[in-house]
Amino acid sequence: MFMIHIRRARCLLAVASAIVCLSSSVHAGRTPETGEDRQPRNIYELWRSFDHTFQRVLTRNELEQYRNRSPEQIKEEDPELYARISQDVKAWTILWIHHVRTALVPIPEKRMETAHRTAERVDSILRQHFKEQGWPYKPLDVVFLPPQVFLDEAHRGDLTAGMFIPFYPDSIFVSVDWPIPIELVLTHEILHYNKTGDVFGLPLEEGLADIGARYLVVKYDLLTAYSLRRVDTYPIERKGIDLVLDEMGKRTGKSHDEAVDMFLGALLTGNQDRMEEIFGAETWQRVIKLSNSRGDWQTHRIKAALGE
User: Fold this and answer.
1) What angle do CA 140, 142, 143 make, to 5 degrees?
2) Is 290 left (phi over 0), alpha (psi -120 to 50) or beta?
């Protein structure tokens, strides 16, 4: 997840025109938690309200699954339960989005149009780049919200430009205005969303998504390299990725941009053959292991793993 300080849980939409069939566990027109006269003030309250409401509509066993298993696990093991939970989460969220946009913090129509045009351009560019590289591409729906709903007293340190909501699949909720450019946020998140498997640990994945996003937004004139100098996201994670990219260049003679595309290919396809060919299977597995070990993604450890 693309964040300034810490990462939250992971998991182009015209919400206003969506038609949703509410399940028997919710009442049309009501919001979870307190009913018609009380809407969650921010996305964190919305998230918490789901659990509060599911305490009343799910069985004890179902509630335990909701709390302790990932959406992917529930979808695989109990598709019917997943469908019911997801349907309710979508319905409640769409009602909340309408409230936020029309009553809580209305977003000017022109600002929304600009944001959606940006998202459409990013999607079109990345779709073509993926095609040229031979990578599968899944489009990611983007729901734009006012920045105020990403702020919460209990989460003052969790400054984020966007979030995924569990059981609301294939969509990301993004601030329409934020210090980090929307183009960079969307590119970063689309790279995350299109990854295959969970081979890489979080620091490697975040660093690679950040460097990959920076490379792509400059390559396709979405942003300038100069404008990115002021965006200091994932500095520690990026240092480790830069070490790997430099070593790739030395061993293959490829340019930095070519090395980025090769590295992204390993993330997006899950195939590590090219990386193992460059570094050797044992060396590359050492690097991957560092990324999966808490606190081990450090430059001196990465250098040692690479045999420098």
Assistant:
1) 150
2) alpha
